[in-house]
Amino acid sequence: MFKRFSICYILFMFCITGTSAQEDRWTGNATNLSKGNLRVNSSGRYLEYSDGTPFLYMGDTAWELISRLNDKETELYLENRREKGFTVIQTVILDELDDMDVSSNGEPKLSDGNIDKPAPGYFTHVDKVISLAAAKGLYIALLPTWGDKVDKQWGKGPEIFTPENAYRYGKWLGERYMNAPNLIWIIGGDRSGDGKNFAIWNALATGIKSVDKNHLMTYHPHGEHSSSFWFHNASWLDFNMCQSGHAQQDFAIYQRLLLPDLKKEPHKPCMDGEPRYENIPINFKKENGRFGDDDIRHTLYQSMFSGACGYTYGCNDIWQMFDTGREPKCDADTPWYQSMDKQGAWDLIHFRRLWEKFDFTQGKKQQTIFGNIPLENKNYPVAFGNKDYLLVYFPLGGERTIYLPSMKASKRSLKWMNPRNGRITFHQNTTADTILVSSPTKGKGNDWVLIIE
């Protein structure tokens, strides 16, 4: 009898906590491009299609995609990301790691290294990448250049931009891609927007927007900074992007970047466009260990439940398209094509399923449910919802008293969602306003989402 009970208990716990051998896969195109161009919704908090349907920016970081992958490799990568539920791919035209005369199709990026002479062969390749993504319903969030071409510091360089030629290049890009159905513009590229950089970035953005009125635009800053530091009031900046970066390990970084952005006037949507990469050394030092799939989920759920409009995943081996024969950056150790199925990448689809079940555009942060008890940044719970639903993220699981706000129904159903496999299990029904909840498991790697309806 005891043996039979033990086996049943083990099977039950596996169903709650285990990782499925058959991962959840997205079927069909990543998004429906026929819904129209993207825009900021009326609240100034979220993104939507022109038909009013909410849009989730669920990005992947592929900075070196255009420069380093050939057509067959690009197809392999894009299909993998479509299958995992990504909606956006972030990449760069003039990349950081390779010389101007080096690219996957053997063409130079610029003729004679002149920004006023974009090389036709290379930009035909750029066109094809955008088209391949469109066929899968994937948006390309496109950086015209990486920051080293404006402000070298690191990367191949050289510095080739002035405000004048940046405007001309931007206008040329705007004319070329204004009718692409799947484009989002990202100015910047891991650099500051102050000093001499300000005029160049502003000219590049203004040049694009002088002809392209169809696409949203944001700015990618350097680590632990936000686009809002320099460009929040710029007419061309449609939504803010911060880079929480690869050193911080708790919620404090969002208290410094994301939460202040969400309070700025006028309201603009906000998101983390470069959080901790999976498999990158913590603070770029191998002796610190590497960020893992739980770090991905922490930044994903903590930022989205705080009110972000989207999120970008990153893998250390994929952003640089690392392969044998290429110099590893940031201690990359696995070829990109062997890194596409890391657990953190699989886990994003479970959030997307949750986002599609509940109307996030009508929700807001609900931190009052935790009462007046100070919250520890390393295990910072975040609550989000409205009178119809509450979603509560516990980074390390555990036990906590929560004080439920007024909801439409007096009887509430509580369920646990495992963000590692997407499984949802019933917990209890209650009419109480104060409840003590305890997650099925706790500790590092045992994060949970409590769903209250």
Structural account:
The protein has 453 residues and is α/β, with parallel strands linked by helices. It folds into two domains: 33-361, Glycosidases (TIM Barrel), CATH 3.20.20; 364-452, Immunoglobulin-like. The chain is built from twelve helices and 20 strands. The protein has helices spanning 2-17, 65-68, 71-83, 120-135, 163-177, 196-209, 228-231, 252-256, 258-263, 293-304, 316-319, 343-357, and strands at 38-40, 47-49, 54-55, 57-61, 88-94, 139-145, 183-188, 217-220, 225-226, 240-243, 270-272, 310-313, 364-365, 382-385, 390-394, 397-403, 412-417, 424-430, 434-442, 448-452. Strand 5, helix 4 (120-135) and strand 6 form a beta-alpha-beta unit. The longest helix is centred in the first third of the chain and has 16 residues, at 2-17. The model is unreliable at 1-21 (pLDDT under 50).
How much helix, percentage-wise, in residues?
Answer: 25-40%
Task: Count the domains.
Answer: 2
- Could you say what the CATH topology of the largest domain is called? TIM Barrel
Q: Label the overall shape.
A: globular
Over the alpha carbons, how many angstroms does the gyration radius reach? 22 Å
CATH class of the largest domain: Alpha Beta
Kindly estimate the percentage of residues that lie in beta strands according to DSSP.
15-25%
Tell me which CATH architecture of the largest domain applies here.
Alpha-Beta Barrel
| Secondary structure tally, helices | 12
Oligomer type: single chain
Largest sheet: 9 strands, mixed
Structural class: alpha/beta
